[in-house]
Structures are given as C-alpha cells and as structure tokens.
Amino acid sequence: MFNTYNKKVNNIKQIFSIKDLENLCGVKAHTIRIWEKRYNLLSPNRTETNIRTYSLKSLQKLLNVTYLVNSGYKISRISKLNEEEINEYVRRIVSDNSTKNQAINSFKIAMLNYDLELFLSTYEQLSEKRTFRQVFCDVFIPLLTEIGLLWQTDTINPSHEHFITNLIKQKLLVNIEKLQYAQPTKTDKAFILYLPENEIHELGLLYVNYEILLRGYRAVYLGASIPLDSLPNMLGFHENTIFVSYFTIKPEKEKIAEYVQEFNDIVCSDKKNELWMLGKQIIHVSQNSANNHRYFNSINDLILEL
After folding, report:
1. 191: which strand partners?
2. In this structure, how many other beta carbons lie within 10 angstroms of the beta carbon of residue 242?
3. Residue 75 or residue 7, greater confidence
4. Mean pLDDT, all residues of the chain
5. Which of 123-127, 164-168, 180-184, 235-239 has the lowest mean pLDDT?
6. Do 146 and 23 have their domain in common?
7. Is residue 228 domain-resident?
C-alpha cells in the first residue's frame, strides 16, 4: 500500500461532505450511510444543521475499505477489522495489476492536500516496476479523467487541478528531455506539435511528443497558443512534415471547420504536409475533408500510426 497514513498533511482540505466521499471513492452516499449505521464503519461529525462532515482520515479509510470490497471482501468482515488491520489486508492483496488503483488513491490524497512528498514517493514506487509509458497510460490518464469529473462536481477546485497536473507535466518534461539526447533513428518524416491560439491544455500533446520521440522520430514542440500565421516558418524543417495539434477547448466547435480550412490555405497550400488532430473538439467537424488531414479519437489511435 502506498504510504498515505502517516503523511504530514496541511489544513487546506481535510473536511469532506458525504457527496465528496461518493465522488472520490465511487461509493453511493446511500451505501455509505448504511455502512455507518449497520457496521459503524465511519464516525462523521455533524454541523449545527445536522449535516455529516468527514475527516481526511475517514476518506483514507473509506478508500481502503472500497478497495477491499472491490477485491471480493464482504463489508461485514471488513467492519470487524481495526484500521491497521484494514491497511495490512490492503498491503497483502496488492498485486501488479491493482497497484494502479492504490496509486490513483494516493495521488488523489496528494492533490487534495497539496502534498508534494506523497506525490513524489508514490511516483517513485510506481517507477520501480513500470516504465514511464506504463505509469502515464495506466495511472495518470485514469487519474486525469477522474480529476475532470471531480472538478465538474465541485469536489475539488482549480488549484487542486493545477497542482496535480503541473506535477504530472514536470514528469513528462523530464522524460521527454531524456529522449531528446538521442539521435533520431527514423528520417522519413518529422513532426511539429503545437496548440491553437488560446488553447493551453498541454498534457495530451506533451505525451504525444514523448511517444514520437520514443519511436525515434525528429520532433519540434512549439507549445500552447500558436498563431497559424507563424507555422509557415516551419515548412523547411523537413520535406515530409506532419503538424500535430490537440483541440481540447479551442477552436470552438462552430469554428473548427473554418480553422482547418485556414490551416490548409496558410500552411498546407502545396498539399505536401499533413495535419493530425485529436482532442474533444474534433467530434464537431466533418472528418471527410482533405487527404492531408487526419483525425484521431485517442492518443493510442495516433500512436498506432507512428
């Protein structure tokens, strides 16, 4: 089990509502209430208006209890265990396949408490047995998906999201830099990666950059919010250049078709270069356009084309 129990935490986020527990642990509020009443599993505090509130310790316990239930243990059996016994049971049954679930829980605790030490120690434990690619695909991508849902349900605020995503970004940059020291082994094409103007969500595109470099291709990463009229300067980079972009919130859905056409007019007027696109916004544009435009529903779909 990742060491979430004796970590020093601050006072920024230590009180949770039952709805917070439902969102963070994946257990319905109704079930949590039953577990409290029937098995005395948690002991919430009450506000003056009799609303349940839970401590960080209660959240950690419920995360572990949920893990045991999902692993086949009956709640009636778990309820008879003390906290250390619950922790020991979790440690005992953690296998390579289930490690990612415990890691995601630890990362969520780190995020809620802005706990850099916990993030780093969890990451180091993962890295001992997994490649960075496995860590990112098996743990960070599901974690980021959960974070998006937690943000939408007001369980976390933007500072939590920024804290964890910037730490993940740091790990991406470190691993990208390691690959950049190697000479490209494939020269048939090269890649230029960028985000459209006012698009700042970089993690997906950064990971694509990592995969491109991992496969031995030459790549230039331009980053966020790049004007279209600056891209023609890159046309001499390689005779077979593929531009890669990630549309998360920009361009707006009603402007994507116009953006793609403008890209074609400004950058690919000779039809020699390609534009590869992914991200949530591409569902809003017809994908039966020019031959030099490619649309990918996921990062894995794009990776298969490399």
Report:
1. 219, 242
2. 21
3. 75
4. 85
5. 235-239
6. yes
7. yes
Mean pLDDT check: name the lowest of 30-34, 57-61, 129-133.
Answer: 57-61
* Rounded Cα distance, 27 and 50, in Å: 21
Q: What is the 3-state secondary structure (H, E, C) of 155-215?
A: CCCHHHHHHHHHHHHHHHHHHHHHHHCCCCCCCCCEEEEEEECCCCCCHHHHHHHHHHHHC
pLDDT at 13: 63
Does the reported pTM lie above 0.85? no
Q: What is the rounded CA–CA span in Å between residue 293 and residue 11?
A: 50
**Based on the structure, what is the number of domains in the chain?**
2
For 303, counting Cβ atoms within 10 Å of its Cβ (0-12 exposed, 13-18 middle, 19+ buried), the class is middle
Distance from C-alpha of 120 to C-alpha of 123, rounded to nearest angstrom = 5
Enclosing H/E stretch for 105: helix 99-112
Q: How confident is the model at residue 126 (pLDDT cuts 50, 70, 90)?
A: very high
Q: Has residue 76 got a pLDDT over 50?
A: yes
The DSSP line for 47-74 is: -TT--EEEEHHHHHHHHHHHHHHHTT--
Among 144, 192, 196, residue whose Cα is nearest residue 171: 144
Residues 164 and 221 grouped into a single domain = no
Mean pLDDT of 8-12: 43
d(CA 107, CA 24) in angstroms, rounded, equals 12
Whether 64 and 212 share a structural domain: no
Do 133 and 238 fall into the same domain? no
Chain position carrying tokens 């230029």: 192
The domain boundary residue, chosen from 148, 174, 200: 174
The SS3 of residue 282 is helix
Share of the chain residues as helix, strand and coil, in percent rounded to the nearest 5 = 55, 15, 35
- The per-residue pLDDT for 38 is 92
Tokens encoding 255: 């402007």
| CA gap 130, 116 in Å, rounded | 21
